[in-house]
């Protein structure tokens, strides 16, 4: 097996095992501590796999109905945001890029707050509004930046900043104008949370994120070439504009599917790709799958820690508390470079 494939196999298998471990620990710990072997038995029994282990009530209910959906969605969202962040940093050749840079997060926030302020009932409610808002903002940014079939990266970046600023103003205006109950609901959503997660949310987000990551992986080699220059990519036969459209569209869909259910969770798509790039290098064929797994590990671990703390912080606040100081540390160590 070539050395590159060995590295991929080693890192992905290690991170996959770590993800399983943090998921089991996350489902085991809480108000009622459950032995990890009973967590595994509960999950396998629920899947119809006979384990021969007798799991006393209420452990199966606590694991499969209350905790495991939250853990599973955390893993899915962490993987999706980290993958999209990896692609955005490579696409813009900028270590400060993250999924929010193309307006996805601000669009989701605007969609959610509009629905909350208006008290409108929609199919799937808040997630549907956030998902639509995210996609409208992302594709609006792309349309603004595209001229004569070309989308310059610098123009796309500036358009994203302008749209983010405008939608931030819309959200602020609506928060000022809304009543106290709606204001509290909107602020809780904007802080990002995995509370009250249900399996139907996992069932919707998982296929979108999984298919998105597979598509992004298929374009990993093209993204590697785009890191050099668009001229080099043209010379090697890559359809640059088509590749850019696919990368942007899939990253936007993945991010929208994530934030629609959990709200705004920052720094996962910014910090995790940096850490993995330091560990595995810049090759996106390795960086993308390892970042996805590491993102799942990070978000599940942070959410578990916040859930067990004396003050149960929203996970979006906790990731900012953890991510911002760590990113500053990387800056001070001069370990954040232009790509």
Automatic annotation (TrEMBL):
The chain crosses the membrane at residues 12-32, 38-59, 71-88, 100-121, 128-145, 157-176, 197-220, 246-272, 284-302, 308-331. Pfam families: FecCD (PF01032). InterPro entries: ABC_BtuC-like, ABC_transptr_permease_BtuC. It is a multi-pass membrane protein. One of its GO terms (molecular function) is transmembrane transporter activity. The keyword Transport applies. Keywords: Cell membrane, Membrane, Transmembrane, Transmembrane helix, Transport. One of its GO terms (cellular component) is plasma membrane. Belongs to the binding-protein-dependent transport system permease family. FecCD subfamily. Required for corrinoid utilization. Probably part of the ABC transporter complex BtuCDF involved in cobalamin (vitamin B12) import. Probably involved in the translocation of the substrate across the membrane. This is Cobalamin import system permease protein BtuC. It comes from Halarchaeum salinum. The gene is btuC.
